[in-house]
Every structure is written in structure tokens, then in C-alpha cells.
Amino acid sequence: MFIFKYIKEVYSGLKSLVVGLRRTLYYFSHHKEIITQQYPDNRDTLVLPDRFKGEVVMLHDDNNEHACTGCTACELACPNATIKIITKFDITPEGKKKKAIDKFVYHLELCTMCNLCVVACPTDAIKMAQTFEHSVFNRAELTKVLNKPASKIREGVE
Amino acid sequence: MVEEIGSTADGNIILNVGPQHPATHGVLHLVITINGETIQKVEPHLGYIHRSIEKMCESLTYRQFIYVTSRMDYLSSHINNHACALCVEKGLQIEIPSRAQVIRVLMDELTRIASHELWWGAMAMDLGALTPFFHAFREREAINDIMEETCGARLTMNYMVPGGVMQDIHPNFQKRVKEFITLFKSKVSEYNELVSGNIIFQNRMKGVGNLSAADAISFGCSGPTARGSGVSCDIRKLYPYEIYDKINFEEILESEGDSFARYMVRVREMSQSISIIEQLIDNIPEGDFQAKTKAVLKLPKGEFYQRVETARGDFGIYIVSEGGSTPYRIKFRSPGFSNLSALDHMARGSKLGDLVAMMGTLDLVIPDIDR
Amino acid sequence: MWSFSKISKLMDGWLSANFSPTSTMVIEMVIAGIAVITLFALLGLVLVLMERRVAAWIQIRLGPNRVGPGGMLQSLADTLKLLVKEGMTPDGADKFLFNLAPFIAMMVAMLLMAPIAFASDFQLWDLNIGVLYVTAISSLMVISILMAGWASNNKYSLMGAMRSGAQIVSYELSAGLSIMAIVVLSGSLNLNEIIQSQADGWWIFKGHIPVVIAFIIFIIAVTAETNRAPFDLAEAESELTAGFHTEYSGMKFALFFLAEYINVFIVCAIGATLFLGGWMPFHIGHWEAFNHVMDFVPSSIWFFGKTFFLIFLIMWFRWTFPRLRIDQLLDLEWKYLLPISMFNILLITLMAILDWHF
User: Whole-angstrom Cα distance, residue C59 to residue B137?
Assistant: First the structure.
């Protein structure tokens, strides 16, 4: 009968609304469910995973030495010409000329953090760091030179 | 955002919807011809985010072009990368170690769940309920954290390479995925309470945007859009790739063809993806995570095609190679493009307020359509 | 203990002792006017912040908590922002009506403050047709909306205003019928007498099921009257048209925005007065000891507590439910709410005649 159908419709409609209301009341009253991290205040305790791809850095050990031989494998692997390696010729103690890197120019503004350069490096000289706050006011600061001044290649790296 | 750009003699008004939307679909420009409240014709104008990805790929090598496809359908970025890697492997005819296969399928299914979560939240938001969006993002955050730990990024992961995956999974991967499965299962009943069971939602989605099975096939719709009309088109079942033929899962079909059917297909697909993950997570075989490949990949001369099932539907990649280290031509078959073409047919005769429900259930991601 | 009525009586006594009766009246009117405007401003600030916090907690996140302790000064910052915004008038708009519309909205809200009893014996104007006055003046709200839509010279504002007008006019019927339920039971239109008749228990408990039904219909109807979700298709970040206040910016928009929140407060105050007893503490029948304990809490706290509970209820609806389409909205009213409330009125009349309530 029409009246029974009508009442059933109203009842089931109201019930579905009340079920939804109960769920939101649960969230309103249980504040431990809040998962917001209050970002600028939690910089001290913020831990990013090791593999997070923030920017490319060159590893330097305690003696300010790195492992980059200037083989340009990373420059060739990069899809959009973010890395540019400038080489120079060093004189080794035996008097021979050896190629070494002068500057490892890295354009952070072009990098897509795809990790292809890190994977391509045969000597594990570069890796991805976990920094993510890259905003600057002056674009020139985004063109970085990754090898520290006065650093040289470690012995035995080929 | 809405302005009249003309009117025809019979009282129809032409108005613009977009390209700046309050909804989260991207830059979609629809030109609607409307008479009072009833829609007469919908014409999508595309191209606002065309970045000539296919042309760009012609100058990138076979290892380098994969990262660009993440940016097309950014919600199923792993699945897009997977398709590219599979196509290149088809050309090189190399065998993938089974560990890499299992990891790839796991990542695919996690991405599918993440994409459907965002779709669910955005769909509820379009219809006016602003709360489910945040609840959906809580689950999506759990998946993003898993991805961040293993792949290093949260949205455009670039984890698949021709031959396998770029790095091995993190030691915490299994534990985190299991935690996520528990979290998801405890929250999935909430989706019904808040959205699907709610009478207001049901009234706004039932009977809206009817698409019959024959129309779905003729427009080329795929994915949940077509499965909501009863068309069986899951690529994972019809043309299985990787190890999908060995996994036990169901293809979800609904027969009504209205918005509510498409909605339920996606919600049930999330549970199916969870069951696939459960079958695989404890049985990841040992072995290599990447097959040995040459430093510079060169595909032999010829044409190669690979289809996968993304969260939106049937994604295809077609590589034409002349034997060099960069492809001669790459073409992507995007699922969103064909799904969008069905919008005109569905929307004729509906009210203006129904257009949003329809666009929501088509699950459009405009960068996928415009490439 | 202090109470609002004692303070007002003190002031009245002092003023009439020192000034002539006419100037006493004038001064009291000025004081009342300033008090109402201050209450508006305070309520606006508090309600906006409450809305944002309630919304945030429902959505599992924190609300504004930076500006001031616990975010209390957030609304102040928002007000300052709105003050310095440029107020543009669209070209070709009817300037007089365009500027007048927000003020009419505010005037209606202010007029409605008059009969509300904030505490025992603390009312601006105790007129003997209080309920009729409230329903009549709240109907004037439609005028400001239609004025805003028409004067904007924008086809879509007009469409939004028309939809909103249809919605408000329809839902007034159900709201009126639910209010009638209480009038029938208590036998008077005077708000004070209605509150006094709840001295042995609030109507929502005394008149069991029919009054609960009337209360539910009342809440749904006033949510629609004030254009709040899930009935906010005319104004919210909606699908296509952006509603009757698209073209307003700066202070005029702030006035509309404020008028909406004040309207919510007023209808909740009316609901609290009629159904939940206004400033009457929670009494159960004739349990003298219990009633005496309940009387210790000041009546103004009872009133504001009940009103804010109803406001929370309306906010809770907003953040849980999606929007209704315009035809579904009008369907709901004419096919469901109106027949049920008409049947309900018959039941309540029967109850009142046969004395079937507590």
C-alpha cells in the first residue's frame, strides 16, 4: 500500500542519515584520530625516509674527498640536462696528465628527482639528500656546484 | 567561471564551464548548450595542459622517457610506468625476475587503491559533502608513506625500469603494507556509512547519467566507466600481463549503467585490490629485483604495443622504433579521452546539477587526456 | 548572585531616579541598541570560529590554532581583512538596491532579536504575539535575497536568488506548522508564557512523540530557511552558479555573511525557547529537590547552552551531508515535510484536547 511504502521510505532515509551523523560525531569527539603534523613547529622531530628524493648531493668524507671521476655517466643519463660536468686536467705526482672534475654544475630548477643519475653512477659518488625546502628568492641560488672547493678525488677510485 | 557567450534563436543559452573549476578534475573546458535547466549539448574543449609529451619522448632514450609518463595520469603513475617498462621489455625480449614481477604488481595495486581513494574523496566533495575528502586522504597518506619509504617520492615515483624495478623494496615494506591492509579494512565500512548508504547521495547518483552497454562500447569507454554498464573489459583478465593470470581476483561488473553503478564498481575494486595485495604480500619470491640489461638500450626496428589497466581504464603505449636508441614515435592511448567522449551522450536531457555527478563518476584526470 | 535582570533593573532604577521618564526611555533604547550591536559582533566572531573548529574536528584535522590562544583571534583577523578589501559595484547594477540589500538582511536579524528572552526577566520586548512576530519578520529575509540577486545585473545571481527564494518560501510552511505545535500545546503566542509553561519540564519531553517529530521537522526547515547545507545550493562553493551574493565583496559581503550566522543563532534561539524551554532549567515534574539544584545554574547559561547545542547540531548537518538538488529539495518539502507536519498538527491538537501529554 502506498502509505506503508511512504513510511518505510521516510524511515530508511532517516536511518541512513543518522548512521552518517554518528560517524562524524565519533570523529568530532575522538581527537586522537587527528593525523595533522604541525609543520613549521616540528622541524626538529621530522624524519624523512632514507630514500626520499630531495636533491642531488655529492658525498664528501672527512678529508674533503669525493668519488667522482668525471665519467659523465650521470650527465648522459639525465633526461633534461640538469647536470653539467666541467673537467680540467690535473698533473699527477708521476707527471702524467689526468682528467679530474673542476665543477659539477647541478641545476636544481630543472631537476625532476627521477634518480636516474644516482643509479647510473659507477662509483656511488652522488646520492639523493632528504632536503625539501628549496624555495629561494633569487634563481641564481638554484644553480649549485656540488663538489666542495678544494676537494679532490679519493685515492683508488676509478 | 561561468559566463554566457551567446544564445541561439530557440532560447538556448551557451555557457562555459571551466577551465577553472572549483572541483579537482583539472583544466577542463566544457561548452554547454542549455535551455532553462536542461542540457542540450556538451562540447569539451581540450588542450589547456597539452605539454607535447609524445614529441618530447622522441628525443629521450628508452630509459629516460619513463619518468615523463608519470606526469600524464599522475594518480596511477606506477601503472603508467609499468606499461612503458613492459613495452620496452617486449621489444628487447628480456625476462623479468619473478621478484620484480611481484613487486611491480604490488605497487600497481597500491596505486590503484590510492587513485580510487582520491576519486572517492573528490566525488563526495563535488556533491557537497566536504568531510569524506579528509577521511579518504588519511588512507591515501598511509599509501604515500609506503611509497615514500621504498621509492623515494609520493606522487611521481619513477620506480619501474626496463628489466625490473630501480631499487629493492625497503625492509619495512611488508610490515607497512600489512598495517595498511588492517587500517583499510577497519575503515571501509565507514565509506558505506558516510557516502554510499546515505539517501541524499543515492538520490543524486541513481538514475543520473545512463550509459548503456552498447553505447559504452561504441564510445570506446573502458575501466570502471564501462564496467558500470556491464561491459567486461578488465585488461588484467582479458589480456593478462605480468602475473595477473596467476592471481585470484574478480572482475566487478554492475548492470544499471548509471552513476551509482560506476561508483559502486570503483568502491568494490578497492576491496579487490586489497585481496590481491593480501595474496602477494607474504609470498614475495627471493631473487633479483632487476634483470641485467645493457647500458644503452636499443629496440629492434618494428612496432610494439602494450596495454595495461590503470585506475581509469585501458591505457595503451605504442612504440615505433627505427633501431636507434631513441624511439621514432610513441603514442599513448589514454583512457580518459574516450571516457570523456561519452559525457555528451550521457548529459543530454539532464539537469545542470547532474553534470557534476556525471563528471565525478567518469573519473577524469585532464593531464591524461591532454598529455 | 548577579543576573542580567538584576543589572537591568538596577540601571533602570538609577536612570529613572535621575532623568525624566522620556529621556530615561530614550537612553535605555540607545543602551539596548548598542548592546544588540555588540552582541551581533561578538556572536559573529564566535560563530565563525566555532564553525571552523567544528568542521576541522569532524574532518580529523586541527582548526585555526595559531592566531591568539587556541585560535580565538582568528575571526578578528578575518574581519580586518574584509574591512580593507575593495568593494566593487558591478557596472549596470541598480546601485540603490545593490547597496540596500545587505542592510535589509541585517535589519531583519536585528528586529528578530527583540522578543528573544536571553535570561529570566531579560527581554527587549515582551509582546503578547511573540511567535507570530517572529514568523512574520523572518519572512522578510526573502526580500533582501531577491534584491541582491536582481540588483547584481547578473543572470546567474538572479537564478540563484530565485531558487533561494522558492526554497525559503516553501520551508516557512513546515517551520510554521511545527511552531504551531507548541502554540497549541501551551495555549499562548507569548514567548514568556510558553517558557513559563515549561517550568515542569521541557515540551520536547512532555509532549512525547508528536513534539519530537515537530522538533525534527523544525530543525530541517530552519536549516533550509537559513540556506545552510545540505540546502545551500544557492550559495555554497556550488557546482555552477555562485549564488545571489556573487557580486558582493568587502564589507557588504561581510554583512551578508554575518547576517547568515546571526540568522542561524536566532532560529536556534527560537527553537530552544519553544522546544527546549528557553532559559528554564531542566526540571522534572515536581521533584522539588532536583529542581532546586538545577536552579543554581544561572538562566542565561541555560539559554546559551541550549542555543549553542542547536547551533552545533546545524553545523554537524553541514559537514556530514551532501547537497540536495533544487528539485529534490522542493520534493522533500512538498511531498514529505508538509504532509507529515499537517498530520502531526492533528495529532497534537488531539493530544492537547484529550490531555495526553505530561
Answer: 10
Q: In the predicted model, is pLDDT for residue A94 greater than 80?
A: no
Nearest CA in chain C to B130: C319
Task: Name the percent of chain C in helix, strand, coil, to the closest 5.
Answer: 70, 0, 30
Asked if B2's CB is within 8 angstroms of C242's CB, the reply is: yes
Q: Name the closest residue on chain A to residue B161, using Cα atoms.
A: A116
Q: With an 8 Å Cβ cutoff, are A79 and B158 in contact?
A: no
Q: What is the pTM of this model?
A: 0.88
pLDDT band at B8 (very low <50, low <70, confident <90, very high): low
Q: Which amino acid, residue B42?
A: V
Best probe of the B interface among A21, A47, A51, by most B CBs < 10 A, is A51
Residue B350: give its domain's CATH number: 1.10.645.10
DSSP character at residue C252: H
Can you tell me the distance from the alpha carbon of B91 to that of B319, in angstroms, rounded to the nearest whole number? Answer: 9
Instruction: Give the pLDDT score at B26.
Output: 76
Angle between helices B352-362 and B98-126 (to 10 degrees): 170
> What's the pLDDT at B5?
57
Which residues of chain C neighbour B128 with C-beta distances below 8 Å? 229-230, 232, 236, 238, 321-323
| B65–A20 C-beta distance less than 8 A | no
pLDDT at B1: 44
The closest alpha carbon to C191, from C260, C254, C110, C279, belongs to: C279
In order of A42, B126, B143, B248, C327, the CA distances from C330 in angstroms are 50, 21, 42, 48, 5
* Per-residue pLDDT reduced to its tens digit, C153-199: 777 777 778 888 888 899 998 899 999 888 988 888 888 888 888 88
Q: Is residue B200 domain-resident?
A: yes
Burial status of residue C139 (CB atoms within 10 A of its CB: 0-12, 13-18, 19 or more) = middle
The count of domains in chain B is 1
Taking alpha carbons only, the member of B274, B110, B123 closest to residue B196 is B123
Residue A86 at interface with chain B, using a CB cutoff of 8 Å:
no
Q: Which of C57, C232, C239, C316 is the best mutation test for B, with the most CBs of B within 10 A?
A: C239
Kindly report the average pLDDT of chain C as a whole number. 84
Q: What is the ipTM of this complex?
A: 0.84
* Alpha-carbon distance A82 to nearest alpha carbon in chain C (angstroms): 39
- Look at A24 and C316 and tell me if their CB atoms are within 8 Å: yes
List of residues 6+ apart from B169 with CB closer than 8 A: B103, B150, B284, B289
Per-residue pLDDT at B21 exceeds 90 = no
Q: Chain B partners of A83 at a C-beta cutoff of 8 Å?
A: none
Which pLDDT belongs to residue C341?
92
Q: Is residue B118 part of a domain?
A: yes
Per-residue pLDDT of B335-349, as tens digits, reads 989 988 888 888 888
pLDDT at residue B39, rounded to an integer: 86
Amino acid at B34: I
Picking from B126, B127, B134, the nearest residue to C61 by CB comes out as: B134
Q: Which residues in chain C are closer than 8 Å to A16, comparing Cβ atoms?
A: none
Q: Is B16 a domain residue?
A: no
Q: What residue numbers bound the domain in which B353 lies? A: 47-370
A17 touches chain B (CB under 8 A): yes
> Measured between beta carbons, which residues in chain B are less than 8 angstroms from residue C324?
200, 203-204
Look at residue B189 and tell me if it is in a domain: yes
Signed CA dihedral, C7, C12, C13, C18: sign only: positive
Nearest CA in chain C to B124: C322
